[in-house]
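cron nightly-structures :: item 1 of 1
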Amino acid sequence: MSCDGPGKGVAPIFQFDTSGKLLKNFGADVFTGPHKMSVDADGNLWVADNAGAQVFKLNQEGKVLLTLGKKNQKGTTDGLFDTPTDVAVAANGDVFVADGHDGGGTSAGVARIVKLDKNGKFLKAWGRRGMGPGEFDVVHAIAIDSRGRVFVADRQNNRIQIFDAEGTFIAQWLQFGRPSGLYINRRDDTMYVSDSESRDARTNTGRNALQAGTGYGYNLGVRRGVRIGSARDGSVKSFMPDPCPYPYAFLSTMGEGVTADRDGNVYTAEPFARRLMKFAIKQTK
């Protein structure tokens, strides 16, 4: 999470092998509060620095190749971000930044997608706070499928929204729960969605003075966990439930970030538990 930042001298990017062995870590004194990271087709790392209002591109050794935004200067004019949460890079190199973490369930905060070229030149932005098509409330993750469509985890609205590369609304999907993390394998468009926050009236709504059945994270009847399906047709193929007992006791359990390796094993990042989890997928012959 971006709340406290990594601390001075702490290198917050860690590389492990698939067994969990630490290979290296780097990034000390680069970030204010990194939120999510993605990897482009060339193996470069893109880090959304939520607290610092910046986006960084680094190589595999941790060298900063490109810096976007101005440190600790929030804004929505060209060259500035408010609270960037995630980055996705298209096949042609265009960069899409999810910008808008704050103000869930309120009228406050930015809620948009920013599109830039491969060199970081601003091309366009779309979205505003709301519940309608093309509107967002906590833009928490972003991914691109094999057709170049842009998938946005619109978390407080309990949905994924899909756009073309120019920001034209295509569809919304509710069947993947309340999305905190989103990853699409472009080889076959398998989609992994992590729901870490869904709650209903039997749990603490997360906001004082609101009636049961309302408030932060309300998503009636939906269980937390990772849903695996298809970005092509929206079908949900399988579900990995949150092992936390239900009704849930905390604001967020399960991973807020999710990805998968070439064998289909799933990895989740749990910020409150401060751990990474690997879920080994049984392979059938």
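cron nightly-structures :: done
The chain has two domains: 1-174, 178-285.
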